Amino acid sequence: MAVFLRIGLRVLIGLLIACLIAVAIGWFLISRSLPEYEGEVRLRGLEAPATVIRDANAVPHIRAASARDAWFVLGSIHAQDRMWQMELSRRAAQGRLSAYFGERTVALDRLVKTLDIYGLAKRGLAHQDDETLVALDAYAAGVNAWIHHINDDARGRGAPEFFVYSDPITPWTPTDSMAIVKMMALNLTAAARSEVRRGQFHLQLEPERVADILPDYPNDAVITAPRFSELFPGARFPMIARADERLPMGPAAMPEFGGASNAWAVDGTRTSTGKPLLANDPHLWLQAPSLWYLTGIEGGDLSLIGGTMPGIPALLIGHNSRVGWGLTTTTADDQDLYIEKLNPEDPAQYLTPKGWSPFQERSIRIEVADKPTLSEVVRSTRHGPVLTGKQFGADKITPEGHVAALAWTGLIEEDRTMSALHGLMRAESVAEAMKAAEGVSAPAQNVTLADENGLGMIVAGALPRRQPYSRSQGRIPSPGWVTTNDWDGMLPARDNPRVIRPVEGAIANANNRITDEEFPRHVSFNWGYPYRIQRLKKELSSRAFHSRDSFIALQTDRVSEMARSVLPLIARELWWGDDATREPLKAQALELLRDWTGEMNQHNPEPLIFSEWMRALTRRLALDELGPLYQEIQGPRPLFVERVFRDIDGASIWCDVDKTQEEETCAEIAEAALDDALAALEARHGSQIEAWRWGIVHKAVHRHQPFGFSGPLGVLFNIEQETSGGNYTLLRGLSSGRGTTPYENVHAAGLRVVYDFSDLDRSVMIISTGQSGHPFSRWYDHLGDAWARGDVIPMSMDTDEAHAGSVGVMELVPR
């Protein structure tokens, strides 16, 4: 027995030593990939010495001898800090994620290859101006120089993720950067998804009830689309009511999760300094590291500072020495789905106004880890590529004997978006910036502009020229063989909506309706909810003069105008009731809500009670009528609730439950929903209402790709913070309203900026995580807590200020 014990002990000690050695080797390799911000680095392709100063917040400030070298250095530092993020971004745009991740990303790879994102990007290079081509080439050379530096100096492959996914890092090309912009355009539009959703509801409901559940923006009336089935007499539609899941790194399954944002500006007549101010916070999916990377760029005639995206040689949001700009999603209707009829005698043909025509075909290949490569054929029609499987959910509304094809402004071959970005960066006035922005194709964005003399805003992006007699109006999928549904090219960019030097001295946008033009010059039928713009208008008008600090405070404003509008509607009958006859929990909840200001404060219970009540109320109102289709709209639907409780166009009919003989009132449904909500909250959080806090459930979750989705690894790689705000506050933190974590904050302002034109060096910014993409770097999450608190950091173009308290100075020299 003693012999066996000794042998067992030796084996245990041996295993322990082996584990320690493995951990030591692993840490050595990982630590080699940690970014070092000090010292001299020799890089191939750099034409003259350059300096990168990492300021006190690890923000790099590039000082180069020329604009070409500045873009080269940007590529190098993007690769140093975010190479894994860049690799995933270009693989997503190439349709090559499945070679890493297997079958779970095949659907995204198939969609990207169906749309030919990478092919379009490659062909688009021929349409860029010389200055932009120089920047693209220099940036790619800088990325590749850093990859060589990693390999030559054994820098741990540049990121720890590359030890798990060990394929060689292929050289970066200008096409990669172009494709990432295309992919961003795809992820920022929700027009096709909106068409599918509306088509589904038209198949089940009368048009006036569709207007309740999917209401038009509460502004001037618009012409409603016909019932979807009327466009396809005799067709048999599928009975599909499932809710789609979001494709990782791909377009959102729900239209609400396309891009959003806030931007506003005031001119010198409305500031304490007599010079303009501009604020912007773009809302996108949260991830770790952030999509955004703060950078200052000085080289030749370039002088820029603001938010870049790794992989793209451009400053997407920021300012130069004269002009500042911010972006908000236009929600333009830039996609149309066409239902193409197949020839029953030859399914290789589809119906056109001139008769049967053959599909165009091309082959695609999808590499799948540990599986055979998939070889498929992609078809196209005169409208665009034919969608397959669940792409954009088109299978839900495609009748038998038909296929769906996609028309999208992002499929334009002569796409000069990248050149337009570079023109914007070099603009010396608002007027010049507007002219440059006219070159954007996709994504369509509202560009808010300011210089020291005034303000402007323009819709930058291609807008389809639809036929005025189109019955579908692009609101629902269209019969592809009817010519009045076709696009006649694009509207002239010079006619895009814009405003310059407004007499009111202020500009504001929160994805709200920006034009009252009628179809077909309407831009869109689908706009963001009106509550954020209502809050903006109220707060911008509440004081005679604004300051940088008032703008910073407004970016983190937590008051929900939605709650202020809807709560009195659903609670008024209950507030007038007798609390003494109610259960103590319900009486206490109603008392709290009676005194609530609508502030979505993370430390308070009222936002949680109200949000759960709204979610339960939507379910009570809609589930019996919609059945499985309810999955498409579950969660809070405030405009729907407002229509019902105000009985707009007879919408109160939703309060009556079909399956009972009694005629329920809206007050009864509201009380039943409150009971549902309180029961659910008590089960999850206990019976002490004082212990309920909004921040417990409204956590901002920045997930690492891909380890953040892998159970226990998420603890190491994800970043979480409790946050205030909600779906409809200026401090926007969007949650899905469904699943086991319905209030998880997953879509928010990953970047916030405020520019002060009295002294641009007083401008401030923040991103949602840290500058480094290395999960073991101290700079991986160093800005996250400040972001969650609503704090900002200084972003000065002054070199001396960058040096003050800097965490490192890196000298780059030609090799």
Task: Map the helices and strands.
Elements: H1 2-32, E1 39-43, E2 50-54, E3 60-64, H2 67-94, H3 98-101, H4 106-115, H5 117-124, H6 130-152, H7 161-164, H8 174-188, H9 191-204, H10 207-213, E4 260-266, E5 277-285, E6 287-288, E7 293-299, E8 302-308, E9 317-319, E10 324-329, E11 335-343, E12 346-352, E13 355-358, E14 360-366, E15 374-380, E16 402-408, H11 417-425, H12 430-437, E17 445-451, E18 454-460, E19 464-466, E20 478-479, E21 487-490, E22 498-500, E23 506-509, H13 531-541, H14 548-555, H15 561-575, H16 584-594, H17 606-626, H18 638-646, H19 666-685, H20 694-697, E24 699-704, H21 713-717, E25 719-722, E26 733-734, E27 747-749, E28 751-756, E29 764-767, H22 784-789, E30 793-794, H23 799-803, E31 808-814
Parallel strand pairs: 1-31, 3-7, 6-24, 11-20
Antiparallel strand pairs: 2-3, 2-31, 4-5, 4-23, 5-27, 5-28, 7-8, 8-9, 9-10, 10-17, 11-12, 11-16, 12-13, 14-15, 17-18, 18-22, 19-21, 24-25, 26-27, 28-29, 29-30
Helix pairs in contact: 2-6, 2-8, 5-8, 11-12, 15-16, 15-18, 15-19, 17-19
